[in-house]
Predict the structure of L,D-transpeptidase.
Amino acid sequence: ELAMSGVQPQFTQWVKMLTDPALSEAGRDAVLSDAMLGYLQFVSAIGANGNNWLYSNIPYKLGLPPTAVINQWQLAVRQARTLSYVNSLAPQHPQYAKMHQALRDMLADNRPWPQVGSGPSLRPGQMSNDIPALREILTRTGMLAAS
């Protein structure tokens, strides 16, 4: 999700590396460790830096998460609780689960998306050749009930 969001291009690079079938097991471990450190930094500091990180055109600077956070991760690994630890890092906002499912549904939809022209804004009652495409987009994203 962070790779798709574009807030830090390094997440996209990590996904590209991890999807490379030529990546060795040791290489995969190193990339996953780096990505986890990046994610831990993100979740540790998003509360304080969210407005800058999420709404800026300039990616935020990657750094290490706080030592206490790294220690929690290492403890979870040593105690064989890695899955529950990673799951605990998911956003707790009530809308997150809905957004996550909608994103999964959209990614699973392999049909081509209709194109809407870049003409002027439409106002209620106006006619446009783009209305069928707009209707399909709104229906497929769940914003309009199928008729």
